[in-house]
Amino acid sequence: MENKILIGIIAFILGIIVIAFPLLSVGFLVVASGLSVCILAIYWIIRGIQHWNENKATCVLYVLVGLFAFFFGLVLTGNFPLFLFTSSFLLYIIGFLMIIFGITGIINNEKNMSKISSLLFFIFGIVLLIFANLIFENPLYLALIIGIALMIEGISLILESKDKKIGSEEK
Prior knowledge:
The protein has six helices and no strands. The protein is mainly α. It has one domain. Helix 5 (112-137) runs antiparallel to helix 6. It is globular, with a radius of gyration of 20 Å. Pfam families: DUF308. It comes from Methanobrevibacter arboriphilus. The chain crosses the membrane at residues 5-22, 28-46, 58-76, 82-107, 119-136, 142-159. Keywords: Membrane, Transmembrane, Transmembrane helix.
């Protein structure tokens, strides 16, 4: 439980940092995401080569996907407009998923804190859909959304941890 509190505090602080330094944060994400895709691509290429003796089709598939991902990662690294376009597209998907998970959580959760968290998930999913178009025009919206999401997640983890402590003390 202490880990959740610590992670919640770290998430909340990172959210404040992202909001306080939006261009630096988004710039970091542009480079980090491109490099992450390149690292994942190298893994896929190595994994594909390992399949050579087992299944040549799997090997070729892994290597081709790895090469495509590597070149995409290279193009993405430092490419601000492509990153913003990709982020906007992903936020549409994430927004829809957050709405679905929020509705599911509201219906299925029994604890009030979980229902509140699910309601926030639902509301934030709607906010993501609204701001997905604006991100390409102004990257400050992306930093704001990421910062708020980190802060909400941090608060949720802290409250969830405290909720479990109270529940275990009652037993």
